[in-house]
Amino acid sequence: MPELPEVETVRNSLKEIILNKRIKDVVVRYDKIIENVSVDDFINKLKGQKIVDIKRKGKYLIFVLNDYYLVSHLRMEGKFFDYTDFDYGKHDHIIFIFDDFNLRYNDTRKFGRMDLFDKSVDIYKCKPLVSVGPDANCDEASVEYLESKFKKINKPIKETLLDQSIMSGLGNIYVDEVLFMAHLHPESKTCNLDLDDIKNIKEAATIVLNKAITMGGTTIKSFAASHNHTGLFQNELLVHTKETCPICKSKIEKIRVGGRGTYFCSNCQKIK
DNA sequence: CAGGTCTCCTGCTAGC
DNA sequence: TGCTAGCAGGAGACCT
Predict the structure, then answer these.
(1) Beta carbon of A260 within 7 Å of strand B?
(2) pLDDT digit string (tens) for A137-183?
(3) CB of residue A164 closer than 7 A to nucleic acid strand C?
(4) Which domain holds residue A206?
(5) Which nucleotides in chain C have some atom under 7 angstroms from a protein Cβ?
(6) Between helices A195-214 and A172-181, what is the axis angle to 10°?
């Protein structure tokens, strides 16, 4: 399940493959991936467009084209692979055909989404990017900013950290890691956290994300940036999917918070 | 407005 | 061995 570091890794991999390349044609094999335009518009508008840049906001990829922005979210299992043949697989849903290769959007669970916008549109003021907060590891998501948000939120801190409108980039895995590092129980009420807690969260989020980016993203089960390119950060996880606390050796507990599988150490992580 | 629940999907696993 | 029911999950839709 791609989180900010995985998406950043995908972005960097894709830049090496498609930057300044021109889309010759597009094949759509499963149309519900495309959100805000018809399949015909999607294909016709993309034909002939060159990939000018690839940006990222939170977990969203933003392909900057000559005349359009293509905003892509990988959700659970979305991946991009490049091939030179045309032997499409069961889960290859959208294929971007370039001169000497094709780039396939592959998504087993079909949860990923793509939005196409005219370049005259300010995409940061439109859905879905308008509701994406600052990257968790950037200066804009400051302790002061988080404090002003957190004091109004009366729900578990785990849910708040998963809320991409507060700050973006953390998913289920990294939130567990961040809360472990900050010694906070995932069900702690967000508004009960003090300034030190928020500093600890901010510091942990920055460390975890930046380290994972450096290592090429976490790989759990399905993530791959491109062929044979898998991250190594899964070896660094402290609590998520673990049995024993690396600090106190207590048994790691697994509960559900906000409907999500949540791993934590009840000895090291205090409820607030 | 806030909070809760449902939906999308497929692969995997537990249980028989 | 083969079947099915249940589960996982990011984010938006929808309801109260």
Answers:
(1) no
(2) 999 999 999 999 999 999 999 999 999 999 999 999 999 999 999 99
(3) yes
(4) 143-264
(5) 8-13
(6) 130
CA A240/CA A195 separation, integer angstroms: 25
Number of structural domains found in chain A? 2
Confidence of residue A216 (pLDDT cuts 50, 70, 90): confident
A127 and A8, same structural domain? yes
DSSP string across A49-102: -BEEEEEEETTEEEEEESSEEEEEE-TTTEEEEEESS----TTEEEEEE-SS-E
pTM above 0.90, yes or no: yes
Task: Outline where A194-270 has alpha helix (H).
Answer: 195-214
Determine if strand B comes within 7 Å of the CB of A29.
no
